[in-house]
Design brief:
With 329 residues, the protein is mainly α. Helix content is 72%, strand content 0%. The relative contact order is 0.17.
């Protein structure tokens, strides 16, 4: 039985509240440490906030805008930036880290024909795919560089095996997607007659359904493999900046860990935050941080580090609110 949307959102918010309450009650999460970290190290917190607000968002927007141009979606850089900021606003309050894409997609497809709507939706899908591939690539690199960490606990060894398995699978899928031979696996479609073609052109119809148009929109990126791989590289850079934000928040909490250990933990926390369980991954990220940061040798701040990063994400989401609230309907 499908739950009403309002009830589903209420349950997710309640889940986040319960997890955070349990962490606070058990002493794993100390809110006082968060305010103390900001008060004692405002520069570190300010730099982390700047990295999240400016370079990270510019690169994330640039990746999507390049995909929009490659898909020949008629949209200005200003409008795509507005939609990107709108997505950030909703990502801060909807379950997981992809809820804002639903809002972006709705506005992006509004007033467009079937073919252009399919192409626009395709850019959102490819944007998420390249974002995930970039995250996994960074995680695989960090796990390879930190091979000595595997021996610290069976949990970390299992995490490394999982990351390498996913990275291998995504490498295969990327090769398959960009391979010129992959089209042979697709079913052949009957070519319309000249009369059928003339009729469809007169009616402004391609003769294909929306999902067929969507499949063609995704396939169009096979013609620009450099852009596809470049989008993955941009994504890896975005997540490297996010690792720096985790490291700065840890420093503000007086947690001394090498940067490579943050690179080992942060990608997994990003995946946890993306689970559609609670708004912006609240509670989930803190619980995962409590396990992983303890496993890599942190002496304190296990849940506080991701919690401090979450405060930055929520502040940035609020700053992006005018992009949606002041939008012309």
């Amino acid at each position: 039985m499908k739950l009403p949307s309002w009830l589903a959102h209420t349950l997710r918010i309640a889940f986040a509240a319960v997890v955070i309450a349990v962490l606070i009650r058990s002493g794993a999460l100390k809110p006082a440490l968060l305010s103390a970290a900001i008060a004692k190290h405002p520069v570190l917190y300010g730099v982390a906030f700047f990295l999240y607000l400016v370079p990270l968002q510019i690169l994330a927007w640039l990746r999507w805008h390049l995909l929009l141009r490659a898909a020949k979606v008629n949209i200005t850089a200003r409008e795509s930036a507005r939609l990107h900021l709108t997505g950030i606003f909703f990502n801060g309050f909807l379950p997981g880290g992809t809820g804002g894409d639903l809002v972006k997609g709705w506005y992006l497809m509004k007033g467009r024909g079937k073919t252009e709507s399919a192409a626009a939706l395709g850019t959102l899908v490819v944007d998420r795919i390249t974002g995930l591939f970039g995250l996994v690539a960074l995680a695989a690199a960090a796990n390879w560089i930190g091979r000595d960490i595997w021996t610290l606990s069976p949990l970390l060894a299992a995490q490394s095996v999982f990351v390498f398995s996913v990275a291998a699978g995504m490498t295969f899928l990327t090769f398959l997607f960009l391979s010129p031979w992959s089209t042979r696996l697709l079913p052949k479609r009957r070519k319309p007659s000249l009369q059928e073609t003339a009729t469809m052109l007169e009616e402004g119809n391609t003769g294909r359904g929306f999902f067929a148009e969507f499949a063609l929109a995704l396939g169009a990126f096979r013609k620009t493999p450099g852009l596809f791989v470049g989008a993955i590289a941009i994504s890896a850079t975005v997540h490297l900046i996010l690792v720096s934000i985790y490291a700065l928040c840890a420093a503000a909490l007086n947690v001394e860990l090498p940067f490579r250990l943050h690179a080992y933990v942060a990608p997994t926390l990003t995946l946890a935050n993306g689970l559609p369980i609670s708004p912006a991954g609240l509670g989930v990220g803190e619980a995962a941080g409590m396990v992983l940061y303890k496993a890599v040798g942190a002496t304190h701040g296990f849940a506080e580090i991701p919690a401090l990063v979450h405060t930055i994400g929520l502040l940035v989401a609020l700053l992006c609110a005018p992009a949606y609230l002041l939008r012309r309907k």
